[in-house]
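Re: your question about DUF2334 domain-containing protein

S., sorry for the slow reply, the queue was backed up all week. Below is exactly what I fed in.
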Amino acid sequence: MVELNQDTRHGTLLLSIHDVGPRFANEVDRLRDLLGQVAPADKIALLVVPNHWGEAPITAKTPFASRLREWADAGAEIFVHGWFHKDDTQHTNPYTRLKAQHLTAREGEFVGLTIAEASARMAAGKALLEDICGRSVAGFVAPAWLYSIDTNNALAENGFSLAEDHWRIWHPPSGKVIGRGPVLTWASRSRARIMSSLFVARVMPPMLREARLARLAVHPGDTTIPAIMQSIQRALAALAFDHNIGRYDSLLPADLHPCAS
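Result:
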C-alpha cells in the first residue's frame, strides 16, 4: 500500500466496490487489489447484492459466504445493495420510467418499488448478510443509486444507519444529510459511456481537490476495460493525495452512531 503525506490532504475520500457477489468474485478481487494500493481493507466499503439478477444467490456455508465473513472480520463496511439489482417493475409514472430506461440498463431495482416491496427486499438482504457476517450491516445503497419515495421511507423503517445516492449521504432514521458531493464512477456498457466517464474522471479530481468529501465507486464491469482500470488508478492516486481515506460510518455524528447509547 502506498504511503501518502497526510499534511497535503483535505477532507475525506470514501471508496466503494459495487455489485459484490459470487457472480463477480474474481472481478471484486481485482478491484480490492486496485483500491488496496492506497487504502487498507477496512476502508474499502463493499456493496453486496444478495442474489444478482436472480442467478447468483449468496448462501450460508459456501466459499463466497466465507470470504464475505472474512472481509467483514477485517473491518470492511458491508452495505446491502438491493436484492436482485434488476428492475422488474412495470413503470406507470412517466418520470420514473424515463429514469429507469435512460439512467441504467434495467438495474434500478428500487426506483419504482412500493414501500411494502422495498421493505421486504431490504429486510431480507439485511437479515441474510448480517447472519453471514455476524455483525450489523453498515447501511443500504440502492442499485444505480436510484430510489423511489417509498424506498426512502422503507430505509428508515428497516433501521439502516447509512444510505447514499449520486449527490449525498444521509442517516435514514432521522433524514439528516451527513455528507454532500458527487460520486466519481465509470460506465462500461457502451463506447459513448466509456468515453464520457473517462473524460469526467480526468476533470473531476482537480475540481474536488478542496472538497470536504470525495467519493470513488467502482464496478466489476470496469475490470473488462483496460482504459477504465488505468483511469481509476490515476483518479485514485489524485484523490488520495488530496484527501484522507475514511469510512462511511466516520461521517455519523456521535448521537446518530449505531453504537451510541
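The radius of gyration is 17 Å. The first helix runs from residue 25 to 35.

Happy to talk it through on Thursday.
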